[in-house]
Amino acid sequence: MSDQAVKLIGIVVYLAVLLWIGVLASRRMKDVRDYFAGGKSMGYWAVAFSARATGESAWLLLGLTGMGATVGLQALWVVLGELLGVGISWVWMSRRFKRLTDRYDSLTVPDYLESRFRDHGHVLRLVSALAMVVFVTLYVSAQIDATGKAFESFLDWNYYVGIAIGFVVVLVYIVSGGFVAVVWSDVFQGALMVAGLVLLPVVGIAAAGGLTAVLDGVRAQDPSLLHFSLGEGTEILATIALLLIGLGYLGSPQLFVRFIALRSENELGRGTMVAMVWTLLADVGAVLTGLVGRHLLVGPGSGPALLGTGGEDVMPLLVDHLLPVVFVGVFVSIVLAAIMSTVDSLLVLAASAVVRDVYQKVMAPETPDDALVGRSRVATFVLAFAALAVALGVAAVTPDRTVFWFVIFGWSGISATFCPTIILSLYWSGMTARGALAAMVTGFTCVPLFKFAAPELPGVGDAFAKLSELPPAFAASLVAGVVVSLLDGKGRAALRDTAEELREAGRP
After folding, report:
1. Long-range CB contact pairs, 363-369, < 8 A, 24+
2. Which of 231, 381, 420, 462 could cysteine-pair with 235, CB 3.0–4.6 Å?
3. pLDDT level of residue 29 (50, 70, 90 thresholds)
4. Which of 306, 283, 304 is nearest to 225 (CA)?
5. Separation CA 176–CA 191 (nearest Å)
6. How many Cβ atoms from other residues are within 10 Å of residue 189's Cβ?
7. Nearest-angstrom CA–CA distance, 186 and 48
8. What pLDDT shows up at residue 449?
């Protein structure tokens, strides 16, 4: 049997498991509550694994491992940022959010926002839906792009063939199984991801003769790779940007819809432990993989260019260097798991925005839930092809792109649009519908401004480039929400009853 055939065995088994999950989950599809929120009956283990697998995506397996190889221990600022973001969202935000969404019987984040702010004109719902469709499509396109890169790096396949295979499989099981298929597959895929990211650096450290040998080898190449300092000058802003990636965990709809799907708030304590341990193991494992790869694959006098753009080939090269050929297929599956666990969640989220939040709640409110499953599948299908078109377009015009950049832009758009509004809605009864609208519109528009326009400004452009788009867009959204709400006396008067709701949601 050829090496290529052996590699394919693991991939075929993995893809077959996903399709089988889709078939099983499709049997539970009775109405739109099942398709978009799993009937609100999910347990803590499934929700924690699903939230973490969804929150990481291809950037963890390709982007963060590449950062470990190119910037060394500085990449641990990302790990710290993620631990803070995950911890705050589960410990301080999830219980309030779960109680309020149960009180309002919300199925989606726009459902929650409309009920929380008594927005009877559906403005918040429509703005939320638009933002989700735009940035989710960009985010999904980044994952589709990473699928092609994974097949190209691991198997030396044509980039577009890799995209086609991954795209078709994920589309089949999502369209058939909806949110239930997403969560069940995320448990399977999340387990693969964390196992691979723990196993590979352990094998690599053993092959190198121990962790000390790895660190000594990396230091000989570039001592700065072992510095964990904030840096100097504008480099401090770059480090802060890595730390603040965790802001996206504080209200992003694709993550918080998992709290809606949880069967009981009593599951949150155990879910928190699972989510934190998963994050620590997977993220530290990714950084160590990059460092080990830098030591074993890049000789003295050579640069990280050997590891691809942004170091993103370090994992496939390390797998090929260390493991028997049969494991190459397994690790392709692990990378695909990181990608598909995010693609499936985002597509279901975007479909919910179109079908639940626009069609059912605004255009045809008389439509019963059980009549929407078919439309939800069609919406998922159409949005998937829109994301595919974007991925192919970006691949054509930006051949030197990195997975990290592509993913972070979509992540930042979703985060800056929703997270400040969600935070304020949970903790400040003075937040009004106008304030929420101002915050969301500000976040939505500021992400492209801070990404493309601010870095070109004379004098301060370099600082904005180092800081990246998420922190300033997040801050602008937060300020807009507070200022407009403070100026909206009529809106605050209309929401006096929400103070009691928030007190009840915050009780021990």
Report:
1. 368/31, 369/31, 369/32, 369/33
2. 231
3. low
4. 304
5. 23
6. 28
7. 10
8. 95
8 A C-beta contact, residue 248 and residue 412 = yes
Q: How far is CA 11 from CA 14, 67, 154, 386, in A?
A: 5, 26, 11, 26
With b for 16 or more beta-carbon neighbours within 10 A and e for fewer, the 340-370 pattern comes to bbbbbbbbbbbbbbbbbbbbbbeeeeeeebe
Nearest one of 9, 55, 57, 26 to 340, comparing CA atoms: 57
Half-sphere exposure (CA, 13 Å, Cβ side) for 201?
24
Q: 212-226, 361-375, 406-420, 424-438 — which one is most confidently predicted on average?
A: 424-438
| Mean pLDDT of the region 332-341 | 78
Find the helix packing angle between 268-297 and 314-322, rounded to 10°.
70
**DSSP state at residue 43:** -
CATH number of the 3-106+123-505 domain: 1.20.1730.10
pLDDT for 453 beyond 90: yes
CB 268: neighbour CB atoms within 10 A?
A: 19
Token pair belonging to 347 = 């597509």
The residues, any chain, with a CB within 8 Å of residue 463's CB and separated by 6 or more, are 234, 237
CA distances from 295 to 199, 333, 486 (A): 17, 25, 55
Encoded tokens for 472: 């300033």
Q: Could you tell me the CA-to-CA distances from 291 to 115, 222, 229, 288 in Å, in that order? A: 48, 11, 17, 5
- pLDDT confidence of residue 44: 92
Q: Which tokens belong to 327?
A: 């494991």
pLDDT at 301: 63
Per-residue pLDDT, averaged over 5-19, amounts to: 77
- Placement of tokens 């089949």 in the chain: 172
